Amino acid sequence: MKYWQPKFETMKHDELQELQLKRLKKTAAAVYENVPFYREKFDALGITPDDVKTLDDIKKLPMTRKTDLRDNYPFGLFAVPKDEIVRIHASSGTSGKPTVVGYTAKDIETWADMMARNFTMIGLDASDVFQNAVNYGLFTGGLGFHYGIERLGAMAVPSGTGNTVRQIEMMQDFGVTAIHCTPSYGLYLAETVREMGVADKLSLRVGCFGAEPWSSSTRKELEDAFQIKAYDSYGLSEMMGPGIAFECQEQDGLHIWSDHYIVEILDENGEEVAEGEKGEIVLTSLTKEALPVLRYRTGDIARRLASECPCGRTSDRISRILGRADDMLIVRGINVFPSQIEDVLVRIEKITDQFEIYLDRNKKKLDEITVRVELDEDAFTGEIGDLAAVKRVVEGDLKSVLNIRANVDLVEKGTIPRSTGKAKRVFDRREAI
Fold first, then answer.
1. Can you give the residue ranges of every domain in the chain?
2. pTM for the whole thing?
3. DSSP string computed for 62-126
4. How does pLDDT run across 44-58, given as a tens digit for each residue?
């Protein structure tokens, strides 16, 4: 078993908790002394960093939300002077002011090591050729992975997004052995590889996928299409970027690096859930210098897993992301996650994995959900009865899982736009009651 930083990856639990407490105290002091936002929060709660005496005392500390980053735009939450910031990244700002995150030189080193740790964990090394097919720029996915690839010593192919045929040509010409992209773009790449008839000319053995929820069925489809092992990556810019948690070769949950983060999985009442239960991921950074963050409510829903893993790593583990608290759709009082719908669709024959969800409100002011899904090429028999049968199967399976009726609109393959980034799946056209 290979490790990038064995000291931290296999640290005994009591030693790890001792390290976490030491770093939590340091982080609490840093934000209290250098970030007015946190000083005000501490003062309002009647606490100081000296009140952090055990790891359980994290519950005394204030929560942080995405709106707090927007309210302090652009640099209000930075804990170091601006001349120590060597890079910034930012969100798109499509739902308001962007969230801006900063990095010191040490932060960049920490991030690169964390990524190299992830890559080593899934069996990559300096001999690999790694194609990074995501956006570069203010989005953290591009440079976050890129620096980790170089830190590992592997050959980086910074292909970015788009020009799918050229992407596949590069994979052939450069002998690419590993690729990183969103799962939705991975499916589109696989579709194009099949159309080009070059599957047997690829050298791929590993795929890293993240930035959007994806199902076990999608994993199997990607693995079968490319003859690879497909691994889940989790991250968010507020905590550094991609790679704060990653699957190991067991492919049974993600290791979230406990020497860098404290993870809480909280229920709707803010209480820690039991092992195996699901809740919202709340993260506290322990090693970030430029933008340390306390108890950040990620909005991501996951289950807490046992930390023991056959790979030998002792970090906390979480399930794959089940959805987002703020992506949760409430339809006639029922909570629906897009990932639930995807899980149903990928198991049904004669349809593809391309779908869209439309939410409307009828004349009776009742919510209606319509799932638009592409038919497989083999499904076009020309018989209306055959299409009606497929529609009945899809509607029946959706109702059994969602507990509400969903309308199904079957469309020809290729109708739904493909995405090189995060696929837009949900279109909420409801007006307020």
1. 1-325, 329-428
2. 0.84
3. PPB-HHHHHHTTTTTT-SS-GGG--EEEE---TTSSPPEEEE-HHHHHHHHHHHHHHHHHTT--T
4. 999 999 999 999 999
